[in-house]
Amino acid sequence: MGSSQVKHLLTEDVLEDYTSLTYLNKGEIYHLLEKFHSIDPDKVNNNFAHRFTKQEIVNKFEVLKNNPFQDRIFRVFSSQNDDCFSFEDLLDLCSAMSSECPCEVKAAWAFRIYDIDEDNQITAKDICHLIDRLTWDVYNRNHCLDNESKLKIANIILEEIKLDHSGGIGLSEFQFIISRIPEFTSSFYFRL
To answer: What is the CATH number of the domain that holds 135?
Structure first.
């Protein structure tokens, strides 16, 4: 499918808006539109704001298939909180994961993904859930660490940070911490 088949879906003004509101260039936006359109061309042609299900998006965008935070990504980036993506939701996700996205913006999105209970704090409970996602043994279908070990790790992390002693990490603290980790921007990234 050539980009000429989807170019009619975006006016030059809309394309300019997308490039100014995201960290994506015109070529990347057209590439995403081609992939999004190819899920079901008739639906997109009839309604540019069509929302595809999580499974339809994951089937087309392999980078999401085995991501341990897939459910959180859809929760955070789905503008209707319905685990479905419109083209603009997909643009938001790909913009945040772009190599051009500034560290503080990436950190704000990451914070929302890692704040599992959505209480605006990353607490020991959230960290334990994050550890579970990262250590899940797919073959044996169990967690690699017991609750006591996970809680010990979570408490060490929170103790090491010691910014305001609130028992959790807020967004500004998280952004500060992330700004000190040079590998973050290259790990919170995927290639289109």
So the answer is: 1.10.238.10
